[in-house]
Amino acid sequence: MSDDATTTMLAREHREFARMQRRVLGEFTLTRRHRLMLAAAVAVAVLGFVLPVVHTVAGWQALVSSDHVSALARVFLGFGAVCGIALSTAALVSRRWRLAWFSGAGCALGSVFGMLAYWSHHSAPQSSAVPDVSAGMLVEWLALIALTLFWMPVLLRRPSLLERHGL
After folding, report:
1. How far apart are CA 1 and CA 10, in angstroms?
2. Domains parsed from the chain with CATH numbers
3. Is residue 63 within 8 Å of residue 81, measured between CB atoms?
4. Cβ distance 57 to 26 under 8 Å?
5. What residues form the membrane-spanning segments (predicted)?
6. Which of 13, 46, 58, 71 has the most CB atoms in a 10 Å sphere around its CB?
7. Is the pTM value of this prediction over 0.85?
8. Distance, CA of 160 to CA of 112 (rounded, Å)
9. CA 61 centroid distance within chain
10. CA angle (41 as vertex; 40, 45 as ends), nearest 5
11. Residue 103, burial from CB neighbour count under 10 angstroms (0-12, 13-18, 19+)
């Protein structure tokens, strides 16, 4: 084998090794118990969309229709749907750290919007025009808080760049 062929083969192997290393470093691992807790919290978030959020309007109906809920509540429900359900499920299935980070950060932000939506609804003057907040909003809010707390160990456990490269 000539030196050029050996150099080319070694360069190809080095690129393949670097690609595999990037793929492995982009993943996270979970214990079975932690996966079950995250999956249960996602299921509770789905339940929050099926239950009535405001008066008799279900969460998914309130998200697509602006007639019954405030803008804060719709933003909260949007974070619940995207970060709490879609991104959390995608992160659990693919084990990609970046998806877990977006899911955890989005759930944290969504839980803040949930608190603001609930607070703004209860601080408004009570009249017959303002429908009552139902159990779905509280269930969704608690699910986002739980997802935030369950994703935090995953997000805080990722090693730094220096540790990953053995420095």
Report:
1. 12
2. 30-164 (1.20.140)
3. yes
4. no
5. 36-60, 72-92, 99-118, 138-156
6. 46
7. no
8. 28
9. 21
10. 115
11. buried
